[in-house]
Amino acid sequence: MSTAPMRSAIRVLSNSPVVERIARRPETNKIQVVCNEVSGNTQSVEDVVKMLNYYFGKAYNVPDALEFVQSAGGSTAGGKNCYYISSYNCLGTRLLRAEIASDFARKTHPGSVSELLAEIELLCLESAKDFLSLQRSSGRKSNRAVVEFDYTNIRDLLLFHEYESRLRSLPAPVARQLDVSLARIRPATRTEDINAILNHLAAIQPAPGISVDYDENLHFIEDMLNTEAKKMYVTMDVQKVGNIGDVLQTQNYIQESAPTKRVYFVLKNLDANSRMRYQKDPDAFLFLGRHRVDKVSPM
């Protein structure tokens, strides 16, 4: 059968917070959907898997294409310290992002440093290194990767040294194909302070960018356009923004307001038709997949 229906099914399933990972089993040629058994919401995922298998059976005569599996492993009770690393793709460039669960720390101290978050982001850096090394070994030496580093953590002297050490240890060919971006900048942050951190980081990795979420706060986006960052990664949840016309109008406005910057859009919750529209857009990162990590080694 065509791979498009299966890819669509994987995208739907990967959006569930109880799905730990989705992978193909070569020995059976099945797609395995692994869920955390301590969660109370795995039944809904199993129902979706059954429905998809029914569809694949009727339409393509492959009734057991997906395999539902429950894992005894998982995060601590209540989902604390549970996070995912999400991948987004833009014409050969891979963006790797730490996706933090809703009950992660920082609820009471949003401006505090987090060693756990730093370790997650350094795992993203390792994934980017692996991706670029694989691309180079396959002859695709022009591909790039993007990793995001938390703004508050980068401002911390001790954590900054950890980021710096990992960046400087990268092989030179990999480092040349890597872009870094400051993320989770609070709206009240002064432009002068952001520029100072950008220059500090640029001494290690050239031309760092800025990652921001678009949540109808265009004023904050405009403030970020006034920084010295050469690149911006604007995440847009299409379902929250509205219809695709609203999304395109907002994107055009942001790009027109940034003549000296390269603006990329990280798009979430795209329907199939909208995804096709952006498939070959050089400025659009589309969701590729994610995997869950339950344990983090101490720094």
What would you say this structure looks like, in words?
There is one protein chain. The chain is an alpha/beta fold. It has eleven helices and eleven strands. It has an eight-stranded mixed beta barrel with strand order 4-5-6-7-8-9-10-11, surrounded by four helices. It has a three-stranded mixed sheet with strand order 1-2-3, covered by helices on one side. Strand 1 and strand 2 form a beta hairpin. Helix 3 packs parallel to helix 5. The longest helix has 23 residues. The relative contact order is 0.12. About 6% of the residues have low confidence.
Mean pLDDT: 83
The best one-word shape is: globular
Portion of residues in helices? 40-55%
Strand percentage: 25-35%
Which stretches of 5+ consecutive residues score pLDDT under 50? 72-80, 102-109
Topology as H/E string?
Answer: HEEHEEEHEHHHEHEHEHHEHE
List the helices and strands and how they pair.
Elements: H1 3-14, E1 19-25, E2 30-36, H2 42-60, E3 66-71, E4 83-90, E5 93-100, H3 115-137, E6 145-150, H4 151-155, H5 157-168, H6 172-176, E7 178-183, H7 191-202, E8 209-214, H8 218-225, E9 231-237, H9 238-241, H10 244-256, E10 262-268, H11 272-278, E11 284-293
Parallel strand pairs: 2-3, 5-6, 6-7, 7-8, 8-9, 9-10, 10-11
Antiparallel strand pairs: 1-2, 4-5, 4-11
Helix pairs in contact: 3-5
